[in-house]
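User: Just a sanity check before I run the rest of the batch. Below are the structure tokens for the first item. I only need the designed sequence back.
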């Protein structure tokens, strides 16, 4: 099978099934995607915090693609094997005013830069997050005509931010238009489940994927398989510190669990609340611990203790 290459010089920050394909491939071919970080260059390695106060959201999620897969028809599944994801040395996450789980709590901008190594993302010298890269956005063209922004996930997948779609995983996307028209981008070097501050560790990446077809699969939405033998996180060697919150509203419970975690981090680890919020986005995993004992549910926030050196 052939291997193709797409550079990052013609990104598109929207979904549109009339947008022309940059590449046509046969099922089973590999594609190397060069991807920009989520801001499309609005944030750079030397940027100060003020830059995130003026982000143009029309440019957010610059995607590389689309790729037309010959023979793909509505009702099929596009099978995407994630072969490798390689960073380009630097990443960031941020508190963006008006955005994120706790937008009302954090009105001021804050930008955090990360040094990226072979296996770690350095929050600061004594806090090292495992490098577990994935594409925050992967998807096919939507079935409906028109142009749609990339912020919310949709039937076509899109901004899914599923941190377990790391190399070795296999994802299945419903084909909604002929050719599938697959694109990807918004890569993260690490992220906690929930991406609570609105950003993972946003990173320029080189992404290698293999695209095949499963005919007449008729799947309604994204499905995926994680690699056999791979733990869901590599940061569990020293256990977790966990905050919990209860109540009848899962969203509010989630907010409260993260507020408790921010309290813990800022009190015990010599960091500002903005820094703690960013660390939650990059490393803290949200879990629904209980959703059957009405009228109250439980949400838990898991902080891996192995990140503290």
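Assistant: Here's the designed sequence for the first item:
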């Amino acid at each position: 099978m052939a291997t193709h290459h797409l550079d990052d010089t013609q990104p598109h920050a929207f979904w549109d099934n009339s947008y022309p394909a940059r590449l046509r491939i046969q099922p089973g071919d590999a594609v190397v995607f060069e991807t920009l970080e989520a801001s499309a260059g609005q944030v750079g390695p030397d940027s100060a915090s003020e830059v995130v106060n003026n982000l143009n959201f029309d440019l957010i999620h610059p995607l590389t693609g689309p790729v037309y897969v010959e023979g793909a028809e509505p009702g099929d599944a596009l099978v995407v094997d994630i072969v490798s994801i390689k960073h380009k040395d630097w990443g960031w996450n941020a508190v963006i005013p008006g955005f994120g789980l706790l937008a009302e709590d954090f009105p001021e901008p804050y930008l955090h830069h990360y040094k990226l190594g072979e296996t770690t993302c350095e929050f600061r010298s004594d806090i090292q997050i495992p490098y577990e890269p994935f594409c925050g956005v992967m998807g096919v063209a939507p079935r409906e005509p028109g142009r749609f922004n990339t912020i919310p996930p949709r039937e076509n997948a899109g901004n899914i931010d599923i941190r377990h779609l790391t190399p070795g995983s296999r994802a299945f996307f419903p084909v909604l238009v002929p050719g599938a028209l697959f694109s990807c981008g918004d890569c993260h070097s690490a992220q906690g489940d929930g991406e609570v501050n609105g950003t993972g560790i946003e990173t320029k990446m080189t992404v290698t994927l293999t695209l095949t077809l499963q005919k007449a699969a008729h799947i309604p939405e994204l499905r995926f398989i994680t690699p056999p033998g791979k733990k869901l996180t590599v940061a569990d060697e020293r256990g977790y510190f966990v905050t919990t919150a209860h109540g009848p509203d899962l969203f509010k419970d989630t907010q409260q669990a993260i507020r408790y975690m921010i309290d813990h981090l800022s009190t015990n680890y010599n960091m500002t609340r903005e820094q703690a919020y960013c660390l939650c986005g990059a490393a803290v995993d949200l879990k629904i611990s209980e959703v059957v004992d009405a009228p109250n549910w439980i949400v838990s926030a898991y902080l891996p203790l192995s990140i503290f050196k």
